[in-house]
Amino acid sequence: MIMKIAILSGNPKQEGLCQSVIGAAAEGARAGGAEVDEIRLCDYEMNRCKICGDGWGTCRTENYCSFGSDGFDEAKARLAACDAIVLATPVYWGETTEAFKSFIDKLRRCEFNNTGTLRDKQVLIIACPGGSGNGLLTCLDQMDRFCRHTGAIIFDYIGVNRWNNDYKKQAVKAAVQAIAAGRENGDTI
Ligand SMILES: Cc1cc2nc3c(=O)[nH]c(=O)nc-3n(C[C@H](O)[C@H](O)[C@H](O)COP(=O)(O)O)c2cc1C
Questions:
Q1: Could you point out which of 75, 113, 172, 175 has its C-alpha 20 to 30 Å from the C-alpha of 6?
Q2: Could you give all domains of the chain from N- to C-terminal order, each with its CATH number?
């Protein structure tokens, strides 16, 4: 069966540093024989979590968002249909972009009982700081926490900036190719 890899993207741009890194990830997936679904969260008009009731709503009791018709349900379904995941975002204020954050804020709630959208899937975490290069670690940490809240398995972390993208893009491509070929966190090579 052909592996399907989702690239969950927080990038609003169609070109530039972050998009070229996403391109390297897609290249790696295809080189490893996998199909790619690039989920561009900035293309959705997704709302923030409305924090139902006294803090929890149907996300906890029934594992769905009552306001999911804003694109959340669709993006979640696309992610659930994939076998492995690349998280990729530019760094904004030391965090993921706002579109990315809104989505993962809602998704981790719906995955409170680990219903399977990310559970046990290999996840490669990528952050692209652009200007100063500051904020890389806090952005990676934000995505790390999301993975731990949702039962995902963190395959690796890669930070890519203006002055290292020549060799880091090669690492991104190689990492996704390895995932596509079936390598998992913990395999000794
Ligand atoms: C609102 C905003 C906040 C940003 N915050 C940071 C930051 O904290 N650290 C950093 O290195 N770059 C920051 N950047 C720059 C982006 O990370 C940069 O545009 C992107 O990572 C890579 O370049 P690209 O736009 O060519 O893809 C910020 C950009 C915007 C629009």
A1: 113
A2: 4-180 (3.40.50.360)
